[in-house]
Design a protein that fits this description.
Blueprint (H helix, E strand, L loop, with lengths): L3 E6 L7 H9 L10 H9 L9 E3 L1 E6 L2 E6 L1 E4 L10 H9 L7 E4 L12 E2 L2 H17 L4 E4 L4 H9 L3 E11 L6 H6 L3 H16 L2 E7 L5 H17 L8 H10 L4 E8 L2 E10 L8 E9 L6 H17 L3 E6 L10 E11 L2 H26 L8
Parallel strand pairs: 6-8, 13-14
Antiparallel strand pairs: 1-3, 2-5, 3-4, 4-7, 5-6, 8-15, 9-14, 9-15, 10-11, 11-12, 12-13
Helix pairs in contact: 2-9, 4-5, 7-10, 8-9
């Protein structure tokens, strides 16, 4: 590596926020979830820590005193909170008497949003960072390395280093410069347009109205109410929430500009909410990311209104380029969120298992392409 030095740091707080965010801002595909403030809040709020199975090992590449490249790496003893599922790989290891855990993951915990993962000043630094990651995994005797939801530059560096690629499908909405929500509806087929209007009418006839707040205008009472909804949704599914109330307090303090909150009210009382993240790079396009929602009362079609129609109407009004609906969910296509291929990269230390996984990924990849072709035949838009 000539005069380059790899340093592994146990906390994002050990990296200069200015240096980290400067690397992120220079990336072609930055996301607010890779900001130093976001990763630090995950750590300091004890949302993603060794206690919850996320041991931070932030990997940095230096040339003298200059930070050339960096990435968030976590050593894990489980596969929860990743959204690129490798449970079958772990089971196969176990059946052969081998340990799949601990493993290493380059990712934003609990956040399946595509974007830059390997922050680097140039392609050479990014390549050296990947090589450093593999060397670290060998040194720590980890079973594998997984980079999740990477950007094109990340994928190129991982491919050059010999990592295997895996594709999954998400659903994103693109703003075609619609004049208003009615113009957006007019672009859809008759059946889809009719269904959306019916769903919205059900919510309105139930007496539900919405208000939204952005950034510093989101008050503590609204953050508290949102967390009640968020926590309840997880508890109803039998799980504790991934993120603590303290995490969102830190977001309100350090990244308020990254958040848009919708609150549903009935009879003057809040009864549901959805939280949307927003891009934060001032020179880049405005992008919205569907993240969390919850309700204290049940109303037919409320989820669709809170999580899709209200955010889409806001995106149209404020000129957002894109709304990313998150992982999975073919039902999103009926709301005009179209399929998008996302990519992760994988390195396995065991040669035989690496060969087996490579063959599996070839078959899975062909299945993903067929799936995308199938989805493409079900466009919700009017025929050209």
């Amino acid at each position: 590596m000539n005069d380059y030095v790899i340093r592994v740091l146990p906390s994002p707080s050990d990296v200069s926020p200015e240096a980290w965010n400067a690397l992120l801002a220079a990336e072609a595909e930055p996301s607010p979830f890779m900001r130093h403030e976001y990763l630090t809040a995950l750590n300091d709020s004890r949302s993603a820590t060794p206690d919850s199975g996320w041991l931070p090992q932030f990997v940095t590449l230096w040339q003298g005193e200059q930070l050339q490249a960096a990435c968030p790496l976590y050593v894990k003893d489980h596969s929860y909170g990743e959204y690129v599922f490798d449970w079958a790989w772990a089971n196969a290891y176990e059946q052969h008497g081998l340990a799949y855990y601990p493993k290493a993951v380059v990712a934003v915990p609990f956040t399946p949003v595509p974007g830059a993962r390997l922050l680097a000043r140039d392609a050479e630094s990014r390549t050296l960072l990947v090589q450093g990651l593999i060397a670290l995994c060998k040194q720590l005797e980890l079973s594998s390395l997984h980079l999740l939801f990477g950007a094109e530059a990340d994928v190129a560096a991982c491919t050059e280093a010999g990592l295997m690629l895996r594709n999954t499908v998400q659903f994103h909405w693109t703003n075609a410069q619609y004049a208003d929500f009615d113009a957006f509806l007019a672009s859809l087929s008759h059946d889809k347009r009719k269904k959306i209007r019916q769903e919205r009418r059900k919510v309105a006839e139930a007496g539900v109205s919405f208000r939204w707040s952005r950034g510093a205008d989101i008050g503590k009472a609204d953050w508290d109410f949102f967390y009640r909804c968020y926590e309840r949704t997880y508890r109803e599914h039998g799980n504790p929430p991934y993120l603590t109330r303290d995490f969102f307090r830190r977001m309100a303090d350090t990244m308020p500009e990254a958040w848009l909150l919708f609150i549903a009210e009935r009879d003057g009382k809040p009864m549901a909410s959805s939280l949307i993240a927003l891009s934060t790079e001032p020179e880049g396009p405005l992008v919205a990311y569907g993240r969390y929602w919850g309700a204290l009362e049940r109303v037919d079609c409320l989820h669709f209104e809170a999580c899709y129609y209200q955010p889409l109407a806001w995106c149209i009004e404020h000129g957002a380029q894109r709304f990313e609906g998150g992982a999975q969910g073919e039902h999103k296509m009926a709301r005009a969120l179209m399929p998008v291929k996302t990519t992760s990269a994988h390195w396995l230390a065991h040669p035989s298992f690496a060969d087996a996984v490579e063959r599996f990924l070839e078959r899975e990849g062909a299945g993903i392409e067929n799936y995308l072709d199938h989805l493409g035949e079900r466009s919700p838009f009017k025929s050209a």
